Amino acid sequence: MFKLAFRNIFRNRLRTALTLAAIITGVVAIIISGGFVEDVFVQLRESTIHSRIGHMQILRSGYLEYGRRDPSKYMITQPNEVADAVQSIAHVQAIMTRVNFSGLANNGRADLPIIGEGIEPGKEAQLGTATTLVAGRPLRDGDAFGAVIGEGVAAALHLRPGSFVTLMVNTPEGALNTFEYEVVGVFRTFSKEYDDRAVRIPLSAAQELLFTQSVHSAVVLLDDTSATDAVTAMIRTRLEPLGYVVKPWHELADFYQKTEALYRRQFGALQAIILVMLVLSVASTINMVIYERTGEFGTLLALGQRRRQIFKLVLLENALLGLLGSLLGVVVGAVLASIISGIGISMPPPPGSNVGYTATILLVPWVLVAAALIGALAATVAAILPARRASRLSVVDALRHNI
Q: Which of 218, 205, 206, 175 shows the shortest CA–CA distance to 83?
């Protein structure tokens, strides 16, 4: 039966070609759309990680829940203890500490509410590969009273490299402290909202500004994003008994989570639509083939073929056709994806960002498998009703088509 089914699909080459074209088109559409969505996820993920979040952050227990109200009560008082516990773990590339603060930035004429960070410039340079320097230079370890500011802060206060800005903050004890800093650079990250309020100064300068030697968080940079969950589990084993909380990047990036959920649902809906269109397209072709072969099926039934064998024959023919179309579709889709990726797709800035990017088509194994399965499944499902109808033909009426 397998040999007969294989020979039958090439009897009418035109109809076979039309059916294959429909299956190949559907498979290619799934590969291109799925590869595009996966590329969006990868670029958004890496931009989120390498703008400022890092692969994971280590915080004092209670900081996320109550830190906004009283951040000084949930600071890491022994940052060296955290660094020593993490540094020896595989895949850890760097660990950097930060101090967060909020206050006012003043240019001598106007005030602007800001969110500030005290950072370790040398280590942050390894992390911030997705941060674009718009003007000036990056912050250096030797810049005792230097600052880099977000693009929105620079525009609001009319600041540029070489300008001076005064920061006014409340210390943990409630006192008001102020220092003047020289703007050495203006940066742009993936998040426009952050750029509109962000000021970064050296960690030592932030600790002096707040009169503290503690830090709010320790940010871990890995050499491989896929190792995030494994490394997070190891760090939690070591630090959670000491009163720390370890949060991987995907738990901190709310925008990424919502974007991924939205795109996953959209891609699932697209797959369902393509499946339905393939079933309808292939079913119409199969119905025509069944009608043309009515006399043939009548002869087979008259010669003693069982009805279930006719059903299996038609189903097998279309399953083979679907498998062949899916394999050809995967090859065509992979070639087309490579060509499109070589050219690139210029994309506008996503919501909440002012940075565009160039998209590509990623060849992800699960997308290729899903596309092939959908193509083969569509051809098989489309053949069920026509095969059932062919197996229930009246022998006498079917034989009349041979006249």
A: 218
